[in-house]
Amino acid sequence: MALEDLYQEIILDHYRKPRHPGRLAGADVEVRHYNPVCGDQLTVGVKLDGDKIAGIAVEGVGCSISQAAASVMTEQVIGHTVPEALEASEAFRRLMHGEGEGEPDEEVLGDGVAFAGVAKYPVRIKCALLGWMALKDAAARALAGQGGGETVYDEDEGS
Ligand code: ZN
């Protein structure tokens, strides 16, 4: 199987079977992020234990890239600290902007490596990053003891 086909399979698998779907009971914070360019919508709930992400769930509608990337995100951050999650977020952002040097770090990115090809399609990068943007927002709000919120990305934001 060619690498691109394998990556496609991984993305479709996350799209069909999101890993932490739905609303999180007892979430500290819930945020809703919307990508008007594509119509992707995600509600991300986060529960922290100290600075560790003890629980996360995503309820969303939208394209396969946005929903699959959000599913991968939940897998990569649950059980990790917020700083570790932000590091993974930054690694994924670099992957999307083709800034990585050499091979992407699979330990940090997990199935996120399957999205490497998305970097070639600028309009889809926002789709892939939506879940990570929502996570960063939710984690920051949870750490600050703030409530949830709603964010709509315009043309210049979110990338
Ligand atoms: Zn999309």
Write up what this structure looks like:
- The protein is α+β, with helices and mostly antiparallel strands.
- It contains 5 helices and 4 strands.
- The chain has a 4-stranded mixed sheet with strand order 3-2-1-4, with helices on one face.
- Strand 1 and strand 2 (40-49) form a beta hairpin.
- Helix 1 crosses helix 2 and helix 2 (64-77) packs parallel to helix 5.
- It starts with a helix and ends in a 7-residue tail after the last strand.
- Zinc ion (ZN) binds at residues 35, 38, 40, 62-63, 65-66, 127.
- Zinc ion (ZN) is lined by residues 35, 38, 40, 62-63, 65-66, 127.
SSE diagram, text form:
Layout: H1 3-16, E1 29-35, E2 40-49, E3 52-61, H2 64-77, H3 82-96, H4 106-109, H5 122-143, E4 149-152
Parallel strand pairs: 1-4
Antiparallel strand pairs: 1-2, 2-3
The structure holds zinc ion.
